[in-house]
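In response to reviewer comment 3 from the previous cycle, which asked for concrete evidence that the modeling workflow produces usable outputs, we include below a single protein chain processed end to end. The sequence was submitted unchanged, and the resulting structure tokens are shown without manual editing.
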Amino acid sequence: MFIETISFSKSSTFSQCKLKYNYKYVQRINGDKPRNEDSLNFGSYIHKVLEEGVEAKCMKDLQSLAEQHKKRYKIPFSYKEKTNRCLSNFLNFNGKLGETVATELMYEVSLDKKHSIKQNGIIDRVIKGSNGGYLIIDYKTSKREKNKFELFKDKQLQGYCFAISETFNVPTDKIVCAHYYPVTGHFVDVKYSRGAIAQWKREEIEKSWCIRKAKSKDMVASENQYCNWCEYHDMCPLFVPTQHMNKRIDEQKALKTKKK
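The workflow returned the following structure tokens.
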């Protein structure tokens, strides 16, 4: 199952459930709408407003941006207070930051040139400090916030650190990685050692080889804590009869063909 480029999403999905990986990245079948759709839409909405609001000087500027994008993301009125809280927290936080190098930075870096293995992704925001270092910010609107210990193990941030190190030719000890939670205004940051990033790199290369070597018969479902939120729940042999599963897969494939 050849892949050339791995992302955090591909890597984590393969670890969670190989059947989900098969549906999403091999067969490219669309799943059902996620059960937490409102929360996901709100997260995307806030990301967009904060991305465009980097130069905002007052709440009025941010509220104007929020109003522009509200319909696109189908944000219900009940989220108004939560939205304003995010904007107010961000305005205070944003004024303390240095030069923004990029927002929504799309990257692709090599993990193994000899075997053509790359990693790609999108970083919410990158800031350059006066000392030549860099700050990576990942916006999070989830209810649960991670602490420093959890961030030390965060594979996504480790990947971002490697990407910035490669892209801007800066050592990892001059890169700070952080989660910013606009709902509460909390900011949690960490620094990774060269050893930690080297270990992350080895693991991602190994994961890429596992995906490359995987056969169709290996792409089986795994029951875990993510199942209740999975968009392929209605196509999983662990939860529905085979006949129903095949019917839903055929329906989604027909929709995919129709869109083409």
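Residues 31 and 231 are 5 Å apart (CA to CA). We consider this sufficient to address the reviewer's concern, and the full set will be provided in the supplementary archive.
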